[in-house]
C-alpha cells in the first residue's frame, strides 16, 4: 500500500507544504486505493475522479506560485452522502433521491473547497441517516475493514470505513444520535460530534433538525481538530448557527498531546455503563481510565439519572422531526416520481406511490412512529413528554459539568456485530446508541477515539463529552489519551487491522 494512503492528514499537509509530494499524487493515490479495495468495503456511493484531480492540480499550481494556502490545502476528503454537493449526485442513501444532483453546495462543502481540499466522493450511509449499521442503505451495506462480515456502524458507516480502510485520510459525517461516534468506535477511528450549532447545517438533508450535527471522521485526534477548524464557524444561512468565534481546536489538540492532564476532573457517568456492556468493552474503558489517572487526572463518579430515559425520549423526538422533514419528498418537486399504474393520477396517489416505492422499511417505520406521536390527542403524551425529558437531561449535564471538566463512557456497548444480527430487531439496533444519544439531546459535543481491542479482536471506542461551546476540551483530553495509548501500543491501532484483498 502507498505510504501516502497510510499517512495522517497532518503528515500529508506537512509533506505538501514542504514540496515533497503534490496534491495530484496524494489524491491519485487515494483514488487508486478506492479502486483497489472499495469493491469489498463499499464505503463510497459515488467517486468524483475528474473534479478531485482538477481541484488537486489547482492547489499544486497555487502552491508553486507562492500563494498563501490553508494548512489542509491539497489533502483529499470524502463526504457523507447526506451533505449536498453541487454537480455531484446526493442520495442520502435513498432510492427516492436516486440520481439527484443538487444545484448548490452545503456551507461546509463550500469551506472544504475554499480550503483547497479535493473531494474524493460521497460515502454510503443508512437511508436518511436512520440506522446504526449502514444495513439500511438502499444501495447495499458498507463492510467493516476489520471484518467484512461485520457492520461498520451507522448511519455514517461509509465515512468511517473509508477512513479505516485508508481510502480517504479525512471524511465528513453527521451525528443525530451517534452516527459519527458509534461508527468510529467499531472501526478503530476518531469521530467528533461538535457542539450543536457550531458547524453549519445549511445543505445537510435534514433528519431531525434539533439533533443533526456534521463533524469530522479521521484516524487521529489532531486530524479531527484540523478538519473541525475548517468546517466550523458562524453561518447566517443557518438560523441555529452559533455566532461567537471558536478557539483553535488544532492548538488544543497539540497542547493535549503532551499527555499531561494534571488537575483535570473526569466524570464517569454511572448510567452509561454496567449491564449490557460487553466485557471487553468495559475492560478497555477501565484501562483507559487508569491511563488518565496516571497522567494526573482525577476520576469522579457522576450520576445523571435522566439518562436512563434518553433512548425513549430520543425515539419520539427524532421520528417526529423526521416525519415533518421528510414530508417534502412527495414525488412532485424533485427526486423520484412514481405514478399509479391504474386509476386516476392525483397528487395523493402519486405521493403514496412515490413514498411507498422510494422509502425503505426503517424510514417508513420512523415516519409512522413520528406521525403518530404528533397526532391530535397524543402530542402532549408523547412528543411533549419527550421534550420534558430532554430538559431534564440538559439539567443533568449542567449539574455534572459543575463538578467535572469532562464526562467519559464507552462509546458503544459492544464491538461490531455481524450483518443480520439485529436488522430485524429495531430495539436491539437502537440500543447501540444508548451512550451517544444524551449528547445530541443536550447539544453538547462528544468525541470517540479507539481505546484498544476487545477480547474478540475488534476495536473499542472511548467517549469524551464536554460542555456546550467547550469542544476544545475534547481535543485536549482526547489527544492526551491518544498519546498515552500510542506509547503503550507502539503503533496506531489500525496497523493491527487485517490487510484487505486488493483488486488486480
Give an account of the 3D structure.
It comes from Occultella aeris. An eleven-stranded mixed β-sheet has the order 1-3-2-4-6-5-10-11-9-7-8, with helices on both faces. It has two domains: 410 residues, Amidase signature (AS) domain (Amidase signature (AS) enzymes), CATH 3.90.1300.10; 84 residues, no CATH class. The longest helix is centred in the C-terminal third of the chain and has 22 residues. The protein is α/β, with parallel strands linked by helices and 504 residues long. The protein is built from 17 helices and eleven strands. The model has no long low-confidence stretch (mean pLDDT 96). The radius of gyration is 22 Å and the shape is globular.
Helical content (DSSP H or I, runs of 4+):
25-40%
- So what's the CATH class of the largest domain? Alpha Beta
Global geometry? globular
Radius of gyration: 22 Å
- Strand content bin: 5-15%
Q: What CATH architecture of the largest domain do you see?
A: Alpha-Beta Complex
Main structural class: alpha/beta
Protein name: Glutamyl-tRNA(Gln) amidotransferase subunit A
GO molecular function: ATP binding; glutaminyl-tRNA synthase (glutamine-hydrolyzing) activity; transferase activity
EC number: 6.3.5.7
Enzyme class: ligase
Amino acid at each position: 500500500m502507498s505510504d501516502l494512503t497510510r499517512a495522517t492528514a497532518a503528515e500529508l499537509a506537512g509533506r505538501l507544504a514542504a514540496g515533497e509530494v503534490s496534491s495530484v499524487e496524494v489524491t491519485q493515490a487515494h483514488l487508486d486505493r478506492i479502486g483497489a479495495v472499495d469493491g469489498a468495503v463499499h464505503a463510497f456511493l459515488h467517486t468524483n475522479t475528474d473534479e478531485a484531480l482538477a481541484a488537486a492540480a489547482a492547489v499544486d499550481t497555487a502552491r508553486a506560485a507562492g500563494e498563501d494556502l490553508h494548512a489542509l490545502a491539497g489533502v483529499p476528503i470524502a463526504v457523507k452522502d447526506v451533505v449536498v454537493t453541487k454537480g455531484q449526485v446526493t442520495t442520502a442513501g435513498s432510492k427516492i433521491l436516486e440520481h439527484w444532483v443538487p444545484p448548490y453546495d452545503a456551507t461546509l462543502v463550500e469551506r472544504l473547497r475554499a480550503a483547497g481540499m479535493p473531494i474524493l466522493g460521497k460515502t454510503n450511509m443508512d437511508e436518511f441517516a436512520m440506522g446504526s449499521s449502514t444495513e439500511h442503505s438502499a444501495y447495499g451495506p458498507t463492510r467493516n475493514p476489520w471484518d467484512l462480515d461485520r457492520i461498520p456502524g451507522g448511519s455514517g458507516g461509509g465515512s468511517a470505513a473509508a477512513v479505516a480502510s485508508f481510502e480517504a485520510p479525512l471524511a465528513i459525517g453527521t451525528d443525530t444520535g451517534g452516527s459519527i461516534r458509534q461508527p468510529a468506535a467499531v472501526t478503530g477511528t476518531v469521530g467528533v460530534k461538535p457542539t450543536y450549532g457550531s458547524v453549519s447545517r445549511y445543505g445537510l438533508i435534514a433528519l431531525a433538525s434539533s439533533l443533526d450535527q456534521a463533524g469530522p471522521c479521521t484516524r487521529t485526534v489532531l486530524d479531527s481538530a484540523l478538519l473541525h477548524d475548517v468546517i466550523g464557524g458562524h453561518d447566517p444561512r443557518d438560523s441555529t448557527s452559533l455566532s461567537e468565534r471558536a478557539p483553535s481546536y488544532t492548538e488544543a489538540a497539540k497542547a493535549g498531546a503532551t499527555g499531561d492532564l494534571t488537575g483535570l476532573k473526569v466524570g464517569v457517568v454511572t448510567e452509561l455503563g454496567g449491564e449490557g456492556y460487553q466485557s471487553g468493552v468495559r475492560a478497555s474503558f477501565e484501562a483507559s481510565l487508569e491511563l488518565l489517572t496516571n497522567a494526573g487526572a482525577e476520576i469522579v463518579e457522576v450520576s445523571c439519572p435522566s439518562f436512563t430515559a434518553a433512548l425513549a425520549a430520543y425515539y419520539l423526538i427524532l421520528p417526529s422531526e423526521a416525519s415533518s422533514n421528510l414530508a417534502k419528498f412527495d414525488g412532485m418537486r424533485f427526486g423520484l416520481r412514481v405514478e399509479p399504474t391504474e386509476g386516476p393520477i392525483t397528487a395523493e396517489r402519486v405521493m403514496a406511490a412515490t413514498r411507498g416505492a422510494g422509502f425503505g422499511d426503517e424510514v417508513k417505520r420512523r415516519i409512522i412512529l413520528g406521525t403518530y406521536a404528533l397526532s391530535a390527542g397524543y402530542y402532549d403524551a408523547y412528543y411533549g413528554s419527550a421534550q420534558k425529558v430532554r430538559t431534564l437531561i440538559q439539567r443533568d449535564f449542567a449539574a455534572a459539568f459543575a463538578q467535572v471538566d469532562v464526562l467519559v463512557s464507552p462509546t458503544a456497548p459492544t464491538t461490531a456485530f455481524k450483518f443480520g444480527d439485529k436488522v430485524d430487531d429495531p430495539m436491539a439496533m437502537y440500543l447501540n446508541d444508548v451512550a451517544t444519544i444524551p449528547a445530541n439531546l443536550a447539544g453538547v459535543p462528544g468525541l470517540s477515539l479507539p481505546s484498544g481491542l476487545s477480547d474478540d479482536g475488534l476495536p473499542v471506542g472511548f467517549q469524551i463529552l464536554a460542555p456546550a461551546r467547550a469542544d476544545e476540551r475534547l481535543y485536549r483530553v482526547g489527544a492526551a489519551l491518544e498519546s498515552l495509548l500510542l506509547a503503550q501500543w507502539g503503533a496506531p491501532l489500525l496497523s493491527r487491522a487485517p490487510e484487505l484483498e486488493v483488486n488486480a
